[in-house]
Amino acid sequence: MNVFIRYLWIVLIFSFFSPAHAQETLTLCSADSPPWTIQNSSSPTDIEGLAVDIMYELFDRAHTEVQMVALPFKRCLANTQSGELDGCFMTIKNAERETYAEFTDSYLTIPTYAYYSLKKFDQFEWDSWEDLKPYRLGVQRGFKYGRAFTDALKSMPFKIVEVSDVSEGVGMLFLDRIDLMLTNEFRYEYMIRQHPAYEGKLAHALKPIGIGQVYIAISKNSPHVSIVPKLNEIIANMKSDGSLQKIVHPTPRP
How far apart are CA 210 and CA 203, in angstroms? Predict the structure, then answer.
């Protein structure tokens, strides 16, 4: 039954995003990935999150209607490649994807850090990958930590412990089952909002594990592909006027 319901939703989505609507509305997809894209119910269009808020502001400034949908990431990319949807609103850029999509400039920079319990370390810093070898590293299952970390995994005997999400990893820090939890600052801040008891009990090393860039990919088969330069201009304006920063960090940071 659940499979049927999911299938029905996808059929309805593609019915709504038919060619009759294509010239009126830009339709973009992303995976359900808190805090950027959060699917609230079984409906794939019932979404919110930081990236969703950015898209609404961005396309409002572009005077273009946008509809967003949460799909499994591989399906989102496949629908972008085919042009069934106009694009993906949260993805990294690589050579393969550039063959079928035009990419905007990066609209979001995501640093990943090694977080630790202040109960275990007064302060923790690292300089080289070698420095991390003695420690048990919590990593989120299925999450990418950047090319440098991926390359280091091939040659370094890291003590890797997979966790399902950041809150599980943080819990393992306090149970002394891992020494460091690798995550980015946005997922960490989202976890703190969900679990305020952890507030003030953790810190992160100053050096990032990696820094990722996030883009919008517009299908080369989309009738809206020519909008990319306009989106780039608006992204630059949103960075310079502080509106992007206000969306991703709505309260002043210490």
Answer: 17
Type of residue at 184:
N
Question: pTM of the entire structure?
Answer: 0.83
C-alpha 124, offset from chain centre:
26
DSSP state of 176: T
Q: Within this chain, do residues 218 and 191 fall inside the same structural domain, yes or no?
A: no
Residue owning tokens 């299952």: 141
H or E element that contains 44:
none
pLDDT tens-digit map of 58-84:
999 999 999 999 999 999 999 999 999
- Residue 217's nearest CA partner among 83, 117, 72, 127 is 83
pLDDT band at residue 117 using 50, 70 and 90 as cut-offs: very high
Give the Cα separation of 228 and 221 in Å (integer).
13
Cα 231 to Cα 235: distance, rounded to the nearest angstrom? 6
CB 69 within 8 A of CB 13: yes
Find the domain containing 193 and state its range. Answer: 109-211
pLDDT (tens digit per residue) in 165-202:
999 999 999 999 999 999 999 999 999 999 999 999 99
Q: Mean of the pLDDT values across residues 95-109?
A: 97
> Is there a domain that residue 172 lies in?
yes
- The CA–CA distances, whole Å, from 124 to 96, 116, 140, 214, 218 equal 38, 8, 20, 28, 41
Number of domain units in the chain: 2
Q: Which amino acid is at 135?
A: Y
